[in-house]
Amino acid sequence: MKITDIRFKKASFRFKEPVHVAFGIIEGYETVIIRMDTDQGITGYGEAGPLGFVTGDSLDTCLAIAEDFKAGFIGEDPLTIERIHQIMDAMYNYNTSVKAAFDIACYDIAAKNAGLPLYRYLGGFDPRIESDMTISMGEPQKMAEDCLGWINKGFRILKLKLGDDVVKDAERVRTVRNAIGKDIVLRIDANQGWTPKEAIAIEPVLRENNIELIEQPVKAKDYTGLKEVKEKSILPVVADESIHVPEDAALLANMRACDGFNIKLMKCGGIFPALKINAIAEANHLMTMIGCMGESIIANTAGMHLAAARRNISKIDLDVTFMTSCDWITGGFTAEGGSITLSEEPGIGIHIDQF
Ligand SMILES: [Mg+2]
Q1: Cα distances (angstroms) measured from residue 63 to each of 27, 106, 118, 355
Q2: Would you state the CATH architecture of domain 120-352?
Q3: What residue segments make up the domains of the chain, in order of their start?
Q4: What is the mean pLDDT of residues 229-249?
Q5: CA–centroid distance, residue 118 to ligand 1 (Å)
């Protein structure tokens, strides 16, 4: 099989409500959508959702590099994924979002070629997964109301964004837990907002309120701080911004600096490196969570297929689809609240109008 054409375009999406996290307020996002055609009539779709302050790239760098990748990819076989990544890595270091877009498009083609939904092509553990819903950081009462709203829509796992003020964070957790009762699973994400000392100080409060796990308590590069929190904390500590690519996973696993990794396709460069990260996690007895960036149903569903393919990917944070409205990209999965069932259509199972 040969790649005959690659097209890409910018797409804009707006959140139904602005998202507040420790680094600021996010109103919406733009992505680059890729369409890859082959000489066998199979078309694959991929998407880059750069988030500069995490991934260090931008929409413009993704578009410029996509142009260069296109030139390097015409005539290549999309089924040779190891080689595809070698071509991309030889041309550009880092720039994981645009690499993820090309990686996802190749996997979409490969699974369609095999006549399998992507999750089965990748190993096929279980097409049913359950995502959490992320709750923006805000006033404690407002966060509690937001939680109740999503619980009413059928979500049973919620993730609270914390991290701007550790005293207020404790109040947020208590207020939310009081409001929602004991049966809802609650996890928290401090998005690097705490010092190790603050994280260690708040951990008993989190435990009293039955928090499931602590995500990225300290600065991304503070690996020793992360390890210190992990060692002093009874609750599991999951690294997100601290881990991008497989090498980071190996380092943190070696250091025993955390209890799990949050994989995001945009941070690592796609499904191929994500599988490596999960393998490192599993072999080191670490949990894997999968998260998302500002991305549409295309990249989000690719993440769902990855999660559905692997038993060790047990924590799902693929909620951006539920926070955005988009009528021109459809398919992929059905959902009741956060309970997702992947489509059995070959590939990612996504349909795009207007491309
Ligand atoms: Mg996070």
Answers
A1: 22, 18, 26, 16
A2: Alpha-Beta Barrel (3.20)
A3: 3-114, 120-352
A4: 98
A5: 25
